Amino acid sequence: MSDETITEILPPIRHWPALDLNGVDFDPVLTELMREGPLTRIRLPHGEGWAWLVTRYDDVRTVAEDPRFSREAVIDQPVTRLAPHCVPRRGSVAFLDPPHHTRLRRSVAAAFSAEGVERVREKSRRMLDDLVDELLQDGPPADLTAAVLSPFPVAVLCELMGVPAADRHAMHAWARLILSPSHGARAGERAMDEMGAYFADLIGLRESGTGEDVACLLGAAVGRGEVTPEEAAGLAVRLQIGGAAVTDNSGQLFHLLLTRPGLAERLRAEPEIRPRAVEELLRYIPHRNTVGSARIALEDVGIRGVRIRAGDAVYVSYLSANRDPDVFPYPETIDFSRSPDPHLSFGCGPHHCPGGTLARLVTGLLVEALLDRVPGLRPAVPPEQVPFRKGTSIRGPEALPVTW
What's the confidence (pLDDT) of residue 1? Predict the structure, then answer.
């Protein structure tokens, strides 16, 4: 793009509050920002200054995949951000660039591959069957979140991570504190430190092990000198936190299915379309509030006729990318026949979520078990009475009252 095609006129800075939204309501501020232009400028509730927001699908991919936009540079530059805590930590895999980022991710890639996730499928199915058995035995009404949607993803993730069953509750509690700004910076930082210390001990015990779970893989990598103990513990924390989001995504998905019963009825009647339907639901669900982590432009870059200058902070919105009408015709419509469906719910580029395959496994098993084994499953309260989590970066119902 030549300098002649680039405008030097900066758009106004828009304040973007972290709204507590219910159900699958799409953030009205993000809707306005999408309409205002492919690139806008935003100020989030915390941090300093302003940042560019990129909303179009192709531009989101460009920024996420282009090495000229650095996560690591965020460490040395205060930026506007959603949460008062979770300030970038030096050495964290979330704020590394290749090749160091690639080195760390490679150490656990086998666990999150299709083969690695398939390894836990049958045990996951048995754990889910046990939870549904208990749900049916206890009878309606029930809180689907507490009974199934929260314990099941945590159990599967802990199985993949190598966390003993007795420690699952602690993992879930730590993750909630880290993901919820409403608990305050001190609580979030303390939870991150405690989870890090836990994984440091667990990985240290597995250095001579030969297992296929994440703790064993990290222990072996430390033993070979490929990663440091601190890097291994930090990576484990990031993976555990990221996986915790599956609970909230599952809650939103079932809230959607139960409040639009035609969707659930079709999935019961046509089980063969479920994998494709899960992809469409993952595209449609607004899984987080505002945006995730920023990047810093390492040099001047032109996007859509706008000059992003070296040193500028840049955010991408995967939510808006998933609603780009140039890629997803009629994006506000849930279309189980949509094909292709190249959504970015798990991100893209070097920092894409490694747990995408695991999330698909968990979601697919939940849809199968709850729709087939509890055919009369329906809401026990009106949709507006379903309480959604407040003050958290990942959206989802705090409870999902159901009957059958």
Answer: 41
3-state secondary structure 246-311: HHHHHHHHHHHHHHCHHHHHHHHHCHHHHHHHHHHHHHHCCCECCCCCCEEECCCEEECCEEECCC
Question: What is the structure's pLDDT at 404?
Answer: 98
Q: In this structure, what token pair is assigned to residue 23?
A: 């159900």
What integer pLDDT is reported at residue 91 of this predicted model? 77
Mean pLDDT, the chain, whole residue set: 93
- Which pair of structure tokens corresponds to residue 345? 């719910």
The token pair that represents 41 in the structure block = 């400028």
- pLDDT at res. 6: 75
Contacts of 155 (CB under 8 A, 6+ apart): 124, 127, 165, 168
- Looking at residue 312, its pLDDT comes to 98
pLDDT value at residue 2: 39
Q: Note the pLDDT of residue 181.
A: 61
HSE-CB at 133 with a 13 A cutoff on CA atoms is: 6
3-state secondary structure (DSSP) of residue 46: strand
**What strands, in cross-sheet order, belong to the sheet with 295-297?**
13-15, 39-43, 51-54, 313-316, 295-297, 69-70
Question: Helix, strand, or coil here: 41?
Answer: strand
- Beta bridge partner(s), residue 307: 302
CA distances from 113 to 120, 131, 214, 357 (A): 12, 26, 12, 7
CA distance 211 to 174: 25
Q: What is the pLDDT of residue 5?
A: 66
CA distance 203 to 216: 7
Cut 0.70: pTM above it: yes
- Collapsing DSSP to helix, strand or coil, 341 comes out as coil
Q: Residue 386: which region, alpha, beta or left (left: phi > 0; alpha: psi -120 to 50)?
A: beta
Task: Spell out, as residue ranges, where the chain has pLDDT lower than 70.
Answer: 1-5, 7, 85-88, 181-185
pLDDT of residue 114: 96
Q: What is the rounded CA–CA span in Å between residue 129 and residue 369?
A: 7
How far apart CA 276 and CA 269 sit, in angstroms, is 14
Q: What amino acid occupies position 269?
A: A
Residue given tokens 């799409």 in the structure block: 26
Nearest to 285 by CA among 157, 395, 183, 389: 395
DSSP helix/strand/coil, 403:
strand
